[in-house]
Amino acid sequence: MPISIDGNLFSLSTQDTLYQMQVDEYGILNHLWYGPKTGMSMSYLNQYPEISFSGSLADTGTRRDYSLNDRPLEYAEGGMTDYRTPALRIVHPDGSSALDLRYAGYEVLNHKPGIAHLPASFDRSLQTPTLKITLKDALYPIFVHLYYNAFEKENVIARSVEIENNTDHILSLDKFSSLCLDLPDGDLEVLHFHGRHAMERLKERLPLGFGTFRFESRRGNSSHQHNPAVILAAPHTDESHGACYGACLLYSGCYQVEVQKDQLEQIRLVMGLEESTFHWKLKPQATFHSPEALLSYSNQGFEKLSHQFHDMFREHVIRSTFVHRPRPVLINNWEATYFDFNGQKLIEIADSAKECGIDLFVLDDGWFGNRNSDTESLGDWHVNEEKLGMPLADLSKAIHDRQMQFGLWIEPEMVSEDSDLFRTHPEWVLWIPGRYPSRSRHQLVLDLGNPEVVEYLYQTFSKLIRENSVDYIKWDMNRSISDFYSSYLPEQRQGELAHRYMLGVYELADRLTTEFPEVLFEGCAGGGGRFDGGMLYYFPQYWCSDNTDAHCRTQIQYGTSFFYPISSVGSHVSAVPNHQTGRVTSLKTRGTVAMAGTFGYELDLTLLSPEQREEVRQQVQTYKTLQPLIFDGDYYRLSDPFDHDLAAWSFVSKDGLQILVQSVIYEQKPNVRFPRIQLRGLKRDVWYKQLDTGNVYTGAALMDGGLLLDLPQGTDSSQTLQFVRMDQEETSE
Length: 733
Ligand code: GLA
Known about the structure:
This protein is an alpha+beta fold.
């Protein structure tokens, strides 16, 4: 049973993990355990001696060995002697901000409900029950409901929190977190994924010192700079050994992550809405629900943790019907033409793509209004017929006539000052009265906190998709948000805007993806600036980065793979010299790297030689046969591309029968041995056959001895190897 309740002890079990909480004699909900299954209550560990300068609750009387400041708390409220980072903060009408949350009851629902207006994990089979534990403030009728689900097979705990104001006054909610996790063992390291535009999700691993390690986004999106996900790991944890906890938010707006090591060397992890951009007025009788957070634990290193998250995303987060369906190989015209194209040129590109077996033609930025540069026309979502030389529906038809699908780029959330939309509705823009709004890429941000704007965008884009038989949408978002002010909201509610903006984005995404389940949506925010669990709920794939340089991409895709499944990683082959780095890599290497994702091309295929086009045709064919293994298999990081000149990874099908190994070497040095990679995820005593050579190896040999990569000399070589698992009989001689 994933949920069991024994008196005051609450246990959530997954296949390999146990999460335990207990209500103590004062009604405080203590966190007892998160880790491997132990088969018993872990309450015996929850004892503390007297610690100086740790105050006591009034009702503990003269007892000096009980303080909230020491104990592992399930949802830390602050203000009542716990001096550590609180998970929430409210301000009462009298100006005080303490909460004294005591246990008030629980409920078990036999299914997992969604969270209104927010993305949340789900169970299509309705087999996952929900534990709801309610805490109540000792003074006021303020309730905090903690929601838990244990996804057994995936070893994931989903958590969210709801606050209910049953007082007759308005509360100011100034901090609200999706999860608080107190861990008794302070000897942990933190892994986080930082970056910048065109270099997202770079892994950094740091020891945790005393105090608080914090990262966040205040940019209105989850950002290129820091992904809303974190790993806490025992020292020496590597890909296949050691204990680690992973946590990620299903949220795409301003968020924060705090990891605090206290005086007793205990760790508290708090994740939720970013507090400087969140001030919510909670009216009497109103509730507020946090975004959901996912937690997972592995005592077999990072790869098991990643497999758990990948399975969770594929089975219980990405709701699109495309999640397990074959996805089209695409050609996108952005790096081929930028803004400089006409209908004829696009059709030529589509024709050359068709010859190579490509399924989907995507028309990127520049097809609407007077959009010939990034300074104008965002918001004017009607086709520029003069530029295209035909109506959009005719281009769509021309593409469909070639037995290809038709895709379109849009950027719904933005507006150019030079646009009819801005001239008609200046009040729809985020703009602080009396100030001149800041620009980024020359654009301003529409107020998606205003339902009228969301409705307008829904009408505009649903019509566009319908009237032009669009099969694929690339939804872009090309600036960080600033100037948070909405002319729609009253003064006292401006602090709600950052979150309300996200609710507007989610509503628009929800309505469009619900109305068009057969349209494939790919998210994008200047590449991977909003690549997070919230967006993946709506969009099964996300443009991973504007950086298509094969070498940089191995690092970006490596970092992305810690949480997000490979089937969500938008990855393309682009032209050389690469437009972001100037580097020249072979077509083979670019193809190898782009195959670890949704695969496509972003270059002018008409400029390639016949031999190169033939190579593209073969890559497309190879990818199509490999896509099921890449999308649904288990992914292994076989090297750390930040430490070595070698990037290597593999996929092992869930039934263990097929293995794909891919590697890229950035730089070869003279007179060195062949690089060697050790495979993982194989059966030790089973034989495997390498498809191109027919050589056979035991799983033990491939994992312990490894493979020598016979890569040609020179820089920039890559290799794709396939193995199949052989029957026992076949291998015995
Ligand atoms: C962003 C995207 C690119 C491209 C351009 C178009 O930068 O990440 O892929 O669509 O916008 O303006």
